[in-house]
Amino acid sequence: MQHSKPSDDGRIRCNWAHMAPDFPLYQIYHDTEWGMPQDDDQCLFEKLCLESFQSGLSWRTILAKRDNFRAAFDDFDFHKIAQYDEADVERLLQNAGIIRHRGKITATINNAQRALDLIASQGSLGAYIWQFEPSLQEVLGLEYPAATSASSVALSKDLKKRGWKFVGPTTIYAFMQSMGLVNDHASDCICHATCEAARAGFIRPK
Which amino acids does the record list as binding Zn(2+) (predicted)? Predict the structure, then answer.
């Protein structure tokens, strides 16, 4: 769970929501998206890919380029990305609107192929990922702010075993936070109760 402080509007938010006061998308993302439970496969794949691209960089960089990423990667339709070839890799390496990292680009293509494999065996990405939802005991035992957890280590290890790339436990924990597998908003943050209510009413995919 994050630490918090008041915003300019007097409302309390997680500390990281204040990191870029000149970049309103940061607070919008915090208030409307981060921590809300998600089970849509294409959305989950996008979040996984963007967290992988974020490795070693700031989330502001990724958020500022998210629309460019969506345009470059066919809105993260993993069915299409799985068919990308070397010409697509070169096209993406020439795109200044995204992170031009060959390893992360080829990992995205590989992961799209692995996503299709996983869906064939598990039914959906959502059904697979929500199997790794941490217990309340695990969540309460974490020291905050946490960068990994037992569940993120387990999910990372299983994805790697299935052939996924750039899915280390820190990347996976950030993914779990973003898609609502955990509610890591500070307890007094304006979004904590909203996310908790959404999680309580959320039907876990099977």
Answer: 14, 30, 185, 189
